[in-house]
């Protein structure tokens, strides 16, 4: 009977509207599921919350976390600073706030709220104050907060603000206050934001960049191939995608000449010859302050199992460290901010050895691009941020220090191929974009139902996890279900 009822309901809806109807019903079902889960787990999570607080203040956990923070201000060399973190509602923003708090500093949080109910992250005990910022008044409100709270350092972590807005805010704040900002200035943000201008920037500073040639004759193709016989290239049409790309060179010289001879290429029909690499893409997530790398994490661009475990992988990581040191040094004292530098890694062979060759492909700005670096940060990253306050600008000498293997291990972010393969399988089974997105969100929720799996949970600061799960999420889902949008403030 239930099946026939569903058929009658769907039959009464025009075909053009059936998909939208099903999608709306699935949206509602997922929201109700989240609300039900939050209520079902409420008694258990209440016990976890109370037990965690009890354990934190009355057991050894208090000795491990609370007392060191109280002892920090007694250090004669310690100077307590006030830091403003925008985007504190993000997981990486919360992680940075907690690290500053545990180092003994005063933390101010700010973000753009989409609901009258505060988020779990904004309820963290690491925040001395929290401000709701309006996007249309972003810069003026930041300046007001900096003046009111006497902020020393501003760290932008918001994913709702683009890098150019943060760059403009940096100029205004640093021109009107003593606060230092961990953000590129507008000129550098603009140059790094465009592939063409970034390429010019790298070439001007003699930094390795991925080759990208526009060719208009077969002769120019052969000249490029002969000039760099150890490199591989992907050749494709400059306009349109109606022709399959060609990998060059081929196994033999005659095969290469034969392949190129069959390509229709001239001034009116140019092709692009783009350098390819054998080891693929790697990403260096870096915090750069005044032209010096203060923190770094290296990870592969695609998920690879067991990467980073061998000495060869660690040697590659050291090479990436050195290149990032050169990259930061060439930027000079103006270069301050979070950057994810995408690198193409190749191998060059000679008679007795193989060496890694690195090329910079492109660069992504902002804290959202370096989440691996910021989630679970060490105390070193706070020291790096504080170096922005130094009155002395240290010019790089051009000599890059050697990086010990033991130190580089901590900067390698390993990944698990099994997780990626499961995700790809899920995408193939649930091909519609909506189903994939909803399934991924539901899977994330289920995986983080255990409190110890939720990044918001901390033994010294559990309340953000509880508030997000049992207050913010249910009310937000109710608002979306009733009004097709989160409950808004009046």
Care to describe what's here?
By secondary structure, the protein is of the alpha/beta class. It folds into 4 domains: 19-51 and 418-483, no CATH class; 60-186, Rossmann fold (3-Layer(aba) Sandwich), CATH 3.40.50; 212-276; 280-415, D-amino Acid Aminotransferase, Chain A, domain 1 (2-Layer Sandwich), CATH 3.30.470. The protein contains 18 helices and 13 strands. The protein has helices at 2-11, 15-40, 42-58, 60-71, 91-102, 138-149, 163-176, 186-193, 195-204, 218-227, 253-261, 311-331, 371-374, 379-386, 405-409, 417-429, 433-447, 463-483, and strands at 82-86, 106-111, 127-132, 153-156, 180-181, 212-215, 232-237, 246-248, 271-276, 280-289, 292-300, 337-349, 354-365. The strands form 3 sheets. A 5-stranded parallel sheet has the order 3-2-1-4-5, with helices on both faces. Helix 2 (15-40) packs antiparallel against helix 18 (463-483), helix 6 packs across helix 7 (163-176) and helix 8 crosses helix 9 (195-204). The protein is globular. It starts with a helix and ends in a 7-residue tail after the last helix. Mean pLDDT is 80; it is low at 395-402 and 416-432. InterPro entries: NAD(P)-bd_dom_sf.
Q: What gyration radius follows from the Cα positions, in whole Å?
A: 27 Å
Strand order of the largest sheet: 3-2-1-4-5
Shape: globular
What is the total tally of β strands? 13
InterPro entries: NAD(P)-bd_dom_sf
């Amino acid at each position: 009977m239930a099946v026939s009822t569903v058929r009658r309901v769907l039959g009464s809806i025009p075909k053009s509207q059936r998909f939208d109807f099903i999608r709306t019903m699935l949206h509602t079902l997922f929201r109700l599921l989240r609300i039900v889960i939050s209520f079902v787990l409420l008694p258990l999570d209440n016990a976890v919350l109370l037990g965690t607080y009890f354990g934190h203040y009355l057991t050894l956990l208090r000795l491990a976390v609370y007392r060191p923070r109280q002892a920090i201000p007694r250090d004669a060399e310690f100077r307590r600073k006030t830091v403003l973190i925008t985007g504190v509602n993000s997981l990486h923003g919360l992680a940075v706030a907690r690290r500053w708090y545990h180092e003994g500093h005063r933390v101010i949080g700010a973000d753009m709220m989409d609901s009258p109910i505060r988020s779990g992250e904004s309820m963290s005990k690491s925040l001395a104050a929290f401000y709701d910022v309006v996007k249309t008044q972003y810069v003026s409100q930041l300046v007001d907060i900096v003046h009111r709270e006497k902020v020393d350092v501003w760290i932008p972590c918001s994913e709702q603000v683009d890098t150019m807005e943060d760059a403009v805010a940096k100029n205004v704040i640093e021109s009107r206050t003593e606060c230092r900002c961990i953000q590129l200035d507008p000129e550098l943000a603009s140059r790094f934001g465009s592939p063409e201008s970034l390429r010019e920037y790298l070439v001007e500073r003699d930094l390795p960049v991925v080759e990208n040639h526009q060719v208009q004759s077969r002769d120019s193709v052969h000249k490029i191939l002969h000039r760099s016989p150890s490199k591989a290239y992907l050749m494709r049409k400059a306009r349109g995608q109606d022709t399959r790309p060609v990998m060059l060179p081929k196994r033999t010289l005659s095969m290469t000449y034969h392949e190129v001879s069959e390509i229709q290429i001239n001034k009116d029909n140019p092709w692009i010859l783009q350098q390819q690499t054998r080891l693929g893409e790697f990403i260096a997530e870096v915090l750069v302050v005044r032209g010096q790398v203060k923190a770094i994490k290296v990870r592969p661009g695609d998920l690879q199992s067991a990467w980073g475990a061998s000495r060869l992988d660690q040697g590659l990581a050291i090479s990436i460290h050195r290149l990032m040191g050169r990259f930061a040094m060439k930027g000079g004292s103006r270069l301050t901010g979070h950057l994810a530098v995408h690198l193409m890694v190749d191998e060059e062979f000679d008679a007795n050895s193989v060496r890694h060759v690195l090329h910079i492909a492109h660069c992504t700005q902002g804290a959202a691009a370096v989440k691996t670096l910021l989630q679970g940060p060490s105390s070193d990253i706070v020291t790096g941020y504080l170096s922005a306050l130094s009155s002395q600008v240290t010019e790089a000498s051009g000599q890059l220090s050697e990086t010990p293997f033991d130190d580089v291990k901590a900067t390698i972010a390993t990944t698990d191929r099994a997780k990626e393969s499961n995700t790809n399988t899920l995408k193939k089974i649930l091909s519609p974009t909506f189903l994939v997105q909803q399934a991924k969100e539901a899977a994330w929720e289920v995986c983080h139902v255990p409190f110890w799996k939720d990044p918001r949970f901390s033994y010294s600061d559990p309340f953000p996890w509880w508030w997000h799960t049992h207050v913010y999420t249910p009310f937000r889902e109710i608002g979306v279900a009733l009004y097709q949008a989160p409950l808004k403030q009046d």
